[in-house]
Amino acid sequence: MSVPTCDVAILGAGIVGAACARALACEGLRVIVLDGNPIGSGATAAGMGHITVMDDSEPQFALTRYSQQLWNDVSDQLPADVEYVQTGTLWIAADEDEMATVRRKHAFYQERGVDTEILDAKAVAEVEPNLRTGLAGGLRVSDESVIYPPCAARWLLEQAQLDRATISLGTQVFPMADRTIQFGDGSSLSCGSVIHATGAWASRLFPSLPIRPRKGHLVITDRYPGWVRHQIVELGYLKSAHGSDRESVAFNLQPRKTGQLLLGSSRQFDVDHKDVEPRMLKRMIARGLEYMPRLARLSAIRAWTGFRAATPDSLPLIGPAEIRGHLLATGHEGLGITTSLGTAELIVSHLTGKSSAISIEPYLPARFQGGTDG
Amino acid sequence: MAERVTLTVNNQPIEAYADTSVAAAVMQTHGLAVRQSVTGQARGPVCGMGVCFECRLTVDGVLHQRACLLPCRDGMKIDTRASSEPEAFAKRDAKPATNASGSERVYDVVVLGAGPAGIAAACCAADAGRRVALIDDNPRGGGQIWRHDPAKPPPREAEGWRDRLRRTSVEILSSTLILGSFAPKTLRAESPTGPCTLRFQRLILACGARERFLPFPGWTLPGIFGAGGLQALVKSGYSVHGKKVVVAGSGPLLLAVAAYLRGHGADVRLVAEQAPRSKLLRFGGSLLWHQPSKLFEAMGLRWQLRGVPYRAGCWPIRTDGAQQVTSVTLTDGSRTWTEPCDAVACGFGLVPNLELPMLFVCAIERGFVKVDEHQQTSVAGMYAVGELTGIGGVDKSLIEGQIAGWAAADQPVRIGGLLNESVRARRFSELLDDAFTLRDELRHLADDATIVCRCEDVTYGALKRFVGQRDAKLQTRCGMGPCQGRICGPALQFLFGWLSDSVRPPIFPTALGNLS
Ligand SMILES: Cc1cc2nc3c(=O)[nH]c(=O)nc-3n(C[C@H](O)[C@H](O)[C@H](O)COP(=O)(O)OP(=O)(O)OC[C@H]3O[C@@H](n4cnc5c(N)ncnc54)[C@H](O)[C@@H]3O)c2cc1C
Ligand SMILES: Cc1cc2nc3c(=O)[nH]c(=O)nc-3n(C[C@H](O)[C@H](O)[C@H](O)COP(=O)(O)OP(=O)(O)OC[C@H]3O[C@@H](n4cnc5c(N)ncnc54)[C@H](O)[C@@H]3O)c2cc1C
Ligand code: FES
Fold this sequence. Notes:
The complex is a heterodimer of chains A (374) and B (516). With 374 residues, chain A is α/β, with parallel strands linked by helices. Chain A contains nine helices and 18 strands. In chain A, a hairpin with a 5-residue loop joins strand 17 (317-320) and strand 18 (326-330). Chain B has 516 residues and is an alpha/beta fold. Chain B has 15 helices and 31 strands. Chain B has a five-stranded mixed beta sheet with strand order 2-1-7-5-6, covered by helices on one side. A five-stranded parallel beta sheet of chain B has the order 11-10-9-15-28, covered by helices on one side. Chain B has a five-stranded parallel beta sheet with strand order 17-24-18-19-20, covered by helices on one side. Chain B is globular and about 60 Å long. Classes of the chains: A alpha/beta (374), B alpha/beta (516). Chain A binds chain B through residues 37-41, 45, 81, 129-130, 150-151, 154, 170, 219, 221-227, 258-259, 263, 275-276, 278-279, 281-282, 285-286, 288-289, 293-304, and chain B through 38, 62-64, 84-87, 89-90, 94-98, 100, 180-183, 188, 467-468, 470-471, 474-476, 480-482, 484, 504-506, 509-513, 515-516. Strand 16 (299-310) of chain A pairs antiparallel with strand 31 of chain B, so a sheet runs across the interface. FE2/S2 (inorganic) cluster binds next to loops of chain B.
């Protein structure tokens, strides 16, 4: 029996796998994407779809900024169902401490060419009148946007298909160390490289990977067009446990193109079921009401959960895995929608030698390994 | 007789009986189209029982209120125009965030659903000395069959049970919607006085059924109601007097509804039953043998409908109209014709409201809650009765309700002869299921432009290219609207064999404040 071959097999049709497929196929590589489930049905179906630049570390900034610019570049090609809206982001400072953060963030972004603006209490109340009164101010980042991730993943895969990528869904697959992929029905495929874009499931195949699923809750409302204009995020999370191992909630509110509002978010380690936990839902909504009491009367139509693939240093794992010929593209935690496009460019650069705008170095999985021979 | 109240609709004053539903009052004065869909189509109430979300209106400044569940109150301000003006919210004084957990009430037995099954269960558990709560999201008890027109006396059988209920100590919580369970042995509810928690030792689920709707071209036009849906709206005060109505779909409900509507002055033009005549005759034959009383009941209804054609093997294939329906086109497989009408009452059988049993992880078998002979589900201390365990009508509901009531109160000796009756009732339910099996042709009524998901306006054409429900939902938003797939879910199951995904709290949309 002849074994079909391809250059790259991508495991995972989430947004990261889809972005990699598009970028690699565009370079002329023969790509196959494999997933046991429908397109974008993992964390990609659960995420908020906020495309945002973060400043927790230089490498995090580099990848998010690069990716955000890539999203801006494709924004006019995105079909309507990707629901792209350039909402901008409003970081909310509740008190003077947090205003200090606003100024620090502002300086950081300005130095690096990101368009931001400091708003005082009055200006915040003007741009988002449904926020409670008495907030200290905020930082507006104008270039940021919101998308609907499952359709974005599908669009990326459609682009890959135009460059002759193959997509195979609904079949159980087992990647082998020798770069063959075994299918549930006994057939197999051999490939030059295997890319693991399996999100929070990556550690099932590589138990030694430092990835921990981090559960999050979200709740969405009926349609209230115009209720908020920006993606609104509290800065208080810096003081709360959001950055630590403990479970936490933070106020995060997103206007969808449909007019709906998506309210988040919670973070929990060590929970292995995806049930909506009323206890967390309650805490998360209560946090939202502290910032926006009027939300109390809006109709919530659905709640759900998802798992982020968290790493110890909050940076993704992009590049060679311990097994030769296998690459990782996972560990994107709460930023994978944003960083999918940048991740794809790094993978292309690694596989083809094409230069990329940022260095892959900080994201290499080798930082957690004894060393790797690539 | 209820008092008259004045409310305004789009700033224009109207009068109605208190207790008339807002949906009925608005349809009466402003026509059947009460809202616009997400793509701007005119829509009106369909189900009359709080599951389709097509009657959502702005009430006293609060958007998206289900008007069919809201009784008219003096001074209410109703708006049927979609408000997209942010300032309208911003300037409005919002209620302060509701206090964190709301009140808590403690019961031995909580009965969910005040239809015949729930009423019977509550009566028995209370007679056995238990502290019982009977909960229903509707402002009026009685469930789908015994809830009655506020201006008319209730049916006689219902009155007997209601008298019995009145003599018990059962606490009746109406207009109370169960959202889920936030802690073991409790229910979280939304009530007119705010959110509350109901603690129970035993839970009896009697949350009944809703109608199955199947998409065909034009089925989203205002004026196409559920069969039970139109009946429910009439019961809540909508007048069909002098209106030309075609009753269509499937099941014994069609006869009951047609007779009811005729009794309320409607000009019922036709009853179109999709099941073939041969099956109905066989069904009648087995009734004569097993349960002659059911046959006499049907004959009684038929007598009330004398002069109205009842056609078996006949089904609607499209409806037409501009702002609301003006005609329905039917076929019997060989002949196709058009009937002018003002309303179509159309339902294709009933599907149980499984959301709560599923949330409590009660085992489901062949589409219904699995129970033992005492109506206990796979979860100890939790019982299911009535339509949840099989579609079998009011007798089955009453029998099962009593069994569960006694069992939940630890009085199995009082169940006695009810067990035999329960077996008979189940037999009837199986006969029904067989007689009214939906024909294959109904799978092919929709064309590519026909909307399947009414909340998100997703068409048949957009859905047919997918292989499963989850895929279709993620890519098209089908089932993501406020009805949470209650309407499109059973249709998709019938059309494509897709099963809907998991049930999560809250099982009904509710104000965010009720969840915090
Ligand atoms: C509550 C929440 C809010 C978030 N908000 C944001 C946000 O606002 N902005 C942002 O940028 N990010 C956000 N994220 C993060 C973002 O959703 C994820 O980082 C991103 O979706 C990860 O995409 P992925 O493709 O790596 O993983 P997934 O979408 O999980 O895809 C992995 C795929 O791999 C498949 N798979 C697994 N194992 C195998 C196997 N053995 N073989 C084949 N296939 C396999 C799965 O079926 C799945 O489809 C949020 C996440 C959560 C949970
Ligand atoms: C629309 C409709 C019309 C019908 N009309 C007739 C008729 O004319 N003649 C006839 O013989 N049979 C009719 N039937 C059938 C009849 O309902 C059954 O035969 C039987 O009476 C059902 O009784 P039940 O107690 O199981 O459920 P139901 O009578 O349906 O009662 C269930 C109750 O539970 C409530 N409920 C459900 N979920 C929740 C929740 N989460 N929170 C709070 N409350 C909740 C519902 O509002 C409802 O009042 C109709 C059925 C339907 C669906
Ligand atoms: S008519 Fe009110 S929800 Fe269906």
